[in-house]
Design goal:
Length: 134
């Protein structure tokens, strides 16, 4: 609702502000329990910035500069990157049905993004004798 009314990156900034305000009670509870440390606070801020703010802002800026079809294909490749990161960094091997699902999504988006050409099944004659005749 708010994202359509605010220009540029103001919508994600507003959403982040609302999120911070909603987490203030959790912050108060952690301080009250004595469980809030500087490292934990830095990790939380880093996770918020690197997992939400930067990717969302990059997607928003890219969407304004590239065609929507191309953007859709690039967005459909994100699960491939996530699967590869899990495989390389965490040693998680996705089962075959996961790879098949990713392949289907990327393929469908690639086909949908391919510009279609109109197909002429009948040749068009430009001879004036045939105009209006069937």
């Amino acid at each position: 609702m708010l994202g359509g009314r605010l220009p540029g990156l103001q919508a994600p900034a507003a959403a982040t502000t609302v999120s911070v305000l909603l987490y203030l009670p959790v912050l108060a509870w952690l301080i009250g329990q004595g469980r809030l440390t500087g490292a934990a606070l830095l990790f939380a801020i880093g996770a918020g910035v690197f997992s939400s703010v930067i990717p969302y802002a990059a997607d928003l800026l890219a969407l304004r500069r590239v065609p929507a079809r191309f953007f859709g294909v690039v967005m459909s490749i994100h699960p491939v990157f996530a699967a590869m990161a899990g495989l390389i960094l965490l040693g998680q091997v996705p089962p075959p049905h996961v790879w098949l699902g990713i392949l289907v999504v990327v393929s469908v988006n690639a086909v949908a993004a391919t510009p279609s050409k109109p197909v002429n099944t009948f040749p068009v004659r430009r001879d004036s004798r045939y105009v209006g005749q069937q």
